[in-house]
Fold each of these.
Amino acid sequence: MTALTQIIARQIAKTGPITLAEYMTTCLLHPQHGYYTTRDPLGAAGDFTTAPEISQMFGELLGLCLAQAWMDQGAPDHFILAELGPGRGSLMQDALRATARVPGFHAAAELHLVEASPTLRAEQAKRLGGHTPIWHDQISDLPEAPLFLIANEFFDALPIRQFTRAEEGWRETMIGLQDDTLRPGLSDAAPVAALAHRLNDTKPGDLVETCAPASGTAAQIGARIAAHGGAALIIDYGDWRTLGDTLQALQDHQPTDPFAAPGQADLTAHVDFEALAQAAAPACHTKLTPQGVFLERLGITPRAQALARNLQGASLEDHIAAHRRLTHPAEMGSLFKTLALFPKGAPPPPGLET
Ligand code: SAH
C-alpha cells in the first residue's frame, strides 16, 4: 500500500466510504502526497502534454484574443489579467510576449495566477517573474476589477461526483475498501436536487457527473465580468452537457485504473460547459466552439507559416506536427472546446460567436 492509499483507507475505516470528489481532492491536492503538490506533471517526461507546451502559437493567439476583447471594451486603464491553473506558465509567457506591442495593455494589466501547486508556482515564477505575478489559492481572492481571464485544462482537474440514475432517485459512486483495495461502489438511491434538470434526458442506469467547484468558480468569474467588464476564455475537453463516466487517470501518457495508485496518476473528468455557462449568468456566453475552429479563426495558419520561414529540418517538422495537433479534428481540434464569457453590451471575444 502506498502512503496515500493508507491515508485514504484509514479515513474510510473511520467514516465509511467517501465520495469521488473527496477521493479526487485527496489524490490531487494532499499537501504531502498529492499528484499536483508533489510534481511537475507536464511535458514528454511527465504524464500528459497540454496545448501551450505543444506550441507557442497557442498562448500567443489567446493573448491577442484577450487584448482585442480589452480594446473592444474601451481599453480600461486598470484590469486583472488572470490565469487559472497556469501549469508551467508557458501560456501566459507566450501571451505576454505577443501582447507586448498592444499599446497600453501591459501598463493596464495586473497579473494574477490561481494555482494550488507549490511546485508549479515555482515553475511559473521562473517564466513570469518579470511581470510580478500575485498568486492565489482560489478565485474568490481576486480583486474586484475588470477581469480578463484564461483557463486551459483547469476545469477538468476539479473534483467531480458521479450519480447513477435509479428507478427513483440517484445512487452516488462512493469509494470504499474491499480486502485492502480501494473500490468504487454505489450508495442507496436518494433524490438529488442539483440533478432535477437531468430527469428528462436520462433513464435508469445512466450515469451523470456534477462538479460543484467548477460551477462555483464560473459563478465568481461571471459575477466579476458582469459587474466590472472583462472576458474569460475557457478551453477544455468536454461537451455542452456530459453523459456517462468520464473519469480518467493518466500516468506516463497511458490510461490507468483511477483507484490503483492514488496520487501517482493525473485524474480528470470532462467539463460540462452548460453547467459553467449557467453558473456564470448574468455574464453572457458564446457558443461552445471546437478548439481547431477557434484557432483557425484567430489566424493560426498564417502565424504557423510566418514561424515556419525561420525553421528547417526536424524543427520544421515538429512545428508542422504541432500545428496539426492543435487544430486537426482527429487530434485536439474537436475534442477540446472553447467557451467565452463576456459582459452584456460588449461583442464576444474574436473567433467566437453567440
Ligand atoms: N493550464 C496549464 C496546466 C494544466 S494542468 C496548461 O495548459 O499547460 C492543471 C493546472 O491546474 C495545474 O497548474 C494544477 O496545479 C492546477 N490546479 C489543479 N487543481 C487546482 C485547484 N483546485 N486550484 C488551483 N489550481 C489547481
Note: The first helix runs from residue 3 to 15.
Amino acid sequence: MQQFEGKKVIITGATRGIGCAVAAAFLDKGATVIGLYRNNREAAERFFASSREYKDRLFLYQCDVSDPEKVALLYGEIEEKFNYIDILVNNAGIRRDAMLAMMPVADWRMVIDTNLTGSFLMSKYAVHLMMKKKFGRIITLTSPVAYLGFTGQANYAASKAGQIGMMKTLAKETARKKITVNCVSPGFIETEFLDGLTDEQLAAYKKMVPLRRFGKPEEIAHAVLFLASDQASYITGAVLEINGGL
Ligand code: NDP
C-alpha cells in the first residue's frame, strides 16, 4: 500500500513549476490528482504525457481560480465525479511587479484576485467536501515576501501575507473537523516564476541565500507531502519555511 493510495488531492497550478513537482510526487505515492491550470494548455499536455503511467489517476481541468463562478462550477463537477476530497494544495500564483507608486490598479487587483481570492475560493468549497469524511489537509504556498517585503512587490507581498492570516484563521475554524491547514513558504525556487529577472538580479538574490543556491521544485514537494501525511496530524496553523536559510 502506497502512502497516499486512495487519497484525492486537488492541486492548483499543477502543470508547471512547483505545482507540477507536487502533483508528480503525489502520483508517485499513489494519490488521485485533480490538477488545475489557467490557460497554458501546452504545459498541461506535456505534464499529462510525462505522467502517462498514472493516467487513470490524473485529471486535469482548466479553471481560473480567481473566477468565483468557474470555481463553483468546477467543484460541482468534482463532487459529482469524486464525491469528496482529502487534500487541497493552493499553489497557483502570479506576480506583476512594479513600484507601488507606479503600480497599475489592474495589476494590484490581478495579483490579489489570483493569489488571495483564489486561495479563499478553492478552500471555501474544499472544506465542504472534506467535512463529508471529517478529514482534510489544506496546504497553501505563500512566500517570505509576506513579512520581509520586497521592492516592486507590494501587490504580491499583500496577497501572500493575506494568505497566511487567512490560513491561520481557517486552521482554527476547521480543527474540530480534523482538517489541518498550513502554509509552505519557499524562498527562491528554480521555476518560470523567476523569468524576467536579469542575470545581475539572479546573482544578487543567490548571494542573499546562506546555502548559496536556489531551491528545486522537488524540495518544496517533499514538504507539502509531509504536511499532507499522517505524520503531520498535530501540525496546523503553521508556516513551514524552505528557503536555504534566507
Ligand atoms: P509558475 O509560474 O512556475 O507556475 C504557476 C502556476 O500557477 C501555473 O501552473 C499557472 O497555470 C497557475 N496559475 C496562475 N494563475 C492561475 C489562475 N488564475 N488560475 C489557475 N491557475 C493559475 O510558479 P511557481 O511554481 O514558481 O510558484 C508556485 C507558487 O509558489 C506560487 O503561489 C508562488 O507565489 C509561490 N512561490 C514561488 C517561489 C519561486 O521562487 N518560484 C518563491 C515563493 C513562493 P498556467 O500554466 O495555465 O499558466
Note: The longest helix spans residues 105-131.
Amino acid sequence: MSSRAPLVVANWKMNKTAREAAAFAEEFLALRPSLPDSVGVAIAPAFPALERLGRLLTHTQILLAAQDVHTETKGANTGEVSAPMLKDLGVAMALVGHSERRRDRKEDEAAFTRKIERLVENAISPLYCVGETLEERDGGKTDDVLARQMTALDPFGSLPAGLVIAYEPVWAIGTGRAASPAMAVEAHRQIRSLLAKRYGEGVAATVRILYGGSVTPANAATLFGEEEIDGGLVGGASLVPADFAALVKAAG
Ligand code: PGA
C-alpha cells in the first residue's frame, strides 16, 4: 500500500460559468458525505468562477484550484492572472504545463519553471502536467519526452512544496481512449525515478503522481487500483457531479 493520499482533480477547462459552477458545487456537496474522506478533491474552474466556487467550498475539505498562472507576479501583461491574485481568492493548487497550453500557447519548460516558482512563493501547490503525443509514443520517444518535460524542475534544489505531477498522454485526453493501467504505471515509474534522481528516493516516494486522459467512472477503479497511480486529473467526466463523485469513490 502506498502511503500517499489519493487525489482527484477536476479540470473543467473552458466550461461552466460562475453560476454553473455554483450549481455543480451544490449538487456535489450533497453527495460528499457518501464519499471517502481519505481522498483529496480539488476543482479547477475557469478564472471567472474561482471566487464564487471558492466561497462555496470554504469549510469543506475540497481544494480550489486554478487552471494556469502567469510567470510574473505583476505588471504589463494584459489578460493574465498572477499567483498572488489566485492566492487572494483562496486558490490552493494550480495546473502548470497542461498539454493544451503546451500546444496552443507554445509554452515551454523555462516558462513552467517560472510558473512553479511563482506558485511556491505564494504557497500554492503546483500540479505539473507531462505526457507524450501519439506521434512521440509511436516513435518510441515517450521516455525522452517525459525526461525533457521534467527538466522544468531542474532549477529547484529541493522538491517544490506541494508538488503534484499529472501524467497525461496527449492521445488519451478527451478521446475516450485512456491509457491501459500497465502503460500508465510504466510512465509513472519513470517519472518517479526522475524525481528520485533529483531529490532522492525517500522524497520521490512522497510525491503524488496522478493519471489523466479519458478517466471515466467505468475505468477509474482499474486505473486508481494501481499502487503507482495516486488518483486522477479529469476533464470531461468531472463536469457532472454524480460522475465526479463516482471517480472520488473509485479512488478511495
Ligand atoms: P479528459 O481530460 O478527462 O477529458 O480526457 C483530461 C485533462 O485534459 O486534464
Note: Residues 7-251 form a domain with the TIM Barrel fold (CATH 3.20.20.70).
